[in-house]
Amino acid sequence: MSECRVSLAEITIRREALASAAAARLIEALNLELSERYPEEGANHFRLDPEEVEEGRGAFFVAYANSSPIGCGAVRQIDSRTVEIKRMYVEPGARGVGLGRRMLAILEAEAHRLGATRIVLEAGDRLPEALALYSQAGFVRIPAFGEYVASPLSVCMGKDLSWAS
């Protein structure tokens, strides 16, 4: 792991349009890293449409250290009770300071705001750091869902939200 260049105190996270320059740069970096870990044809699920993160349906967030975008994450509604986490990414130089946990907390708060009682996600089986983060945050393995059903490299996880009764 590369040495961290930032501290959590220096980081701000804000909602941003999926079409923004910062989002495009971070998603490009994420896609490159995923392509390196999963070079097989058809191994990656890169789809997230701008309308899926519009107000009332989801959200896309960008983390900044000073004015540089260093991480991102999104939630999109699957149905009235369920949201899916998408496009979680932290640049290598910003890993290890707790940004992933902070982004997850923001995504959970957005899920609550949207009225969701469950969060699901997909991560690849070659992403042990991400799988560990999600497990530590209370996510458990669930059966594959949606576009991931036929993907042998996918690990699907879910979490019932604590405010749901």
What does this structure look like?
With 165 residues, the protein is of the alpha+beta class. The chain has a single domain, classed as 3-Layer(aba) Sandwich (Aminopeptidase), CATH 3.40.630. It has helices at 21-37, 99-113, 128-136, and strands at 11-15, 58-65, 68-79, 82-90, 118-124, 140-141, 154-160. It has a seven-stranded mixed beta sheet, with helices on both faces. The mean pLDDT is 91.
Shape annotation: globular
Largest sheet: 7 strands, mixed
Spatial separation of the terminal alpha carbons: 40 Å
Mean pLDDT: 91
Number of strands: 7
Query: Can you tell me the residue ranges where pLDDT is under 50 for at least 5 consecutive residues?
Result: none
Question: Roughly what fraction of the amino acids lie in strands?
Answer: 25-35%
